[in-house]
Design brief:
By secondary structure, the protein is mainly alpha-helical. The chain has 2 helices and no strands.
Length: 104
């Protein structure tokens, strides 16, 4: 019950007067425009620098991926060469074994 009483007695701010004069745009537009132009130039400068950094990071990443891919292909080539050598050894050993069986 006490809770209901405190909730019903909220203080509401008085409505604002809509007839109050709005400051003229021409009075404050010139300093604001210069400030905004400077802000826009700074923002554009920042975005250009960020874009350049992003492009450089992409180039670096692509170069690293190419180097890694090249290294991986080299490793795979060496693995295939070893596997082929082992396969050839096995074929030779099987042939020798087969020849020995025929001879005996």
């Amino acid at each position: 019950m006490m809770k209901m009483m405190t909730q019903s007695h909220h203080h509401h701010p008085p409505p604002q007067d809509c007839s109050s004069p709005v400051p003229s745009a021409s009075v404050s537009s010139r300093p604001a425009r210069r400030g905004k132009k400077r802000e826009h130039e700074e923002l554009l400068d920042y975005m250009e620098k960020a874009d350049d950094k992003f492009l450089q990071l992409n180039k670096d990443m692509v170069a690293k991926m190419e180097a890694d891919t090249s290294a991986l292909l080299g490793l795979m080539g060496r693995m295939v060469a070893v596997m082929e050598a082992q396969a050839n050894k096995c074929v030779v050993q099987v042939r020798v074994f087969q020849c020995r069986r025929r001879a005996s």
